[in-house]
Protein: Histidine phosphatase family protein
Amino acid sequence: MGTLFLVRHGQASFGAADYDQLSDLGHQQSVRLGEYFAHKGIRFDGLIAGTLRRHKQTLAGILQGMQHEGEHLSWEGLNEYDSEAVIATVHPQKLEKPTSPEMYRHHFRLLRDGLAQWMAGVVSPKGMPSYSDFVAGVAGALDHVRANHYGKNVLIVTSGGPISTAVGHVLGTSPETTIELNLRIRNSSITEFAFTPKRHMLVSYNAIPHLEDPQYASWVTYS
Structure:
């Protein structure tokens, strides 16, 4: 049996001109997660990450916290969908930067609607793969882990969309459930799978044991 730890990137820069950049807190979350892994004696025989900047920065922070160095495999199929492109399929006008709770709720209502239509094949967001190809990119990473790392610990750093898609793929959930999983996932959270050469089995989802101490309560974020 092997163990796969899927980690969502640390807090990025929601609402900024460049979302694909960890905030200062996002970096702290990543280092703290690495410290947790080191404290638990968890070491990784395989390191895999999406190719986005926030994925690489999160992995670097984790390794810093673990006081560990290692080469990782870059996997483009673990990159996140383009939320702006998804929203544009149902709301062609450019959205203002959210500055109130209602504006945030409106943003995520549109995202939920756009995701549902993309997953159903109704819309094709500009510059994005079809949903079936998106799933295939995530499933390919899972297949790689099973084929090459049986009996070992593997760390994948990616985004909420690929993580929820991996869970949905393994459990056979509906698109609606996959969307809800996606929109509830926390920054730097851990989703754990046990795996054999034939299949993955979900152990836990969206866990943040490294942030459970009350002193880290303000470090729990979703974007």
